Amino acid sequence: MKAFFCILLFFCCSWSSMATEKSYLNEEGHIVFHDNVFETKVRLALRIPVGTPVTLKDAESMDRLDLSAKPRSKAHKVRDIGAIQYFKYLRELNIRYTEVHDLSPLNQLQELRKLDCWYTSVRDISPLAGMTFLKDLNLGYSRVTDLCPLEGLEELETLWLAGLRFRDFSCFEKINPELKSLSMMDCGLKEIDFLKGFNPHYLMLSRNKIRNIDALAAMTQLRQLNLSQNKVKDIRVLKELSENGAFKGRRKYGDKTHNESYHLDLQDNDLDFSYNREQFETIKSIEQKGIEVMR
């Protein structure tokens, strides 16, 4: 008898779960959003009036979708993106400043190239693990602490991690070492040895507590480096980088070639170019190469 009641309880719980589970597709094959803001933005983008169903064909016709909100806006924001699973040909998705926290519906978006989660409540990025085409990912000021799901994303070129806090940096070894742009502004960093395997073009490390920058020694492809608002005292490694081709580059416009404006930002550090002769000579040798330095 006890076994019978256990089985009965199991089926009741299973039925209850199925009954409360949301469905994002009705019997006619039309999309059900369960989020008025999401639905409104889709209708505006596709010019589909209220009352006219949004079909699978409509969803599959979109390659870009902006669900973002304005910062500090008191208006309702997108929270439930469950219906996004049917927008399977999206290449760009912007959910910045929304109330989205669950990315699991994105695991159907295998064509996604660019994802912006700036200032969201997202914690778990494991749904991104299979997105092999993802090139541009912004997780700034979200709640992400584990980057290991990014392992294997060999196309990833731009990664923004501003404002995040990490206790374990071992996952950085699994991130594509060919990153071209990396931002770790305001991450509470004291040391940056975990960056030794990278050689990006753009590196943002401002508003941290970094003292030693020797880990940058092999980053000869650097074009722009922001170290402002840190505790850096020794910049000799930057001189070596400049001698090895860093902070330089060219951009082509048609048949003409112009020097691109790259710069090195050292503002608000423990540097004294007025009284420290070694620091002064180091920075002058860098500037004499035509490199714009903000100090």
UniProtKB/TrEMBL annotation:
UniProt key word Nuclease: no
Protein source organism: Persicobacter diffluens
Top-level lineage group: Bacteria
Record's keyword terms, sorted: Leucine-rich repeat, Repeat, Signal
Full protein name: Leucine-rich repeat domain-containing protein
UniProt xrefs under InterPro entries: Leu-rich_rpt, Leu-rich_rpt_4, LRR_dom_sf, SDS22/Internalin_LRR
Cleaved signal peptide residues: 1-19
PROSITE patterns (alphabetical): LRR
Ranges in a coiled coil: none
Alphabetical list of Gene3D superfamilies matching this protein: Ribonuclease Inhibitor (3.80.10.10)
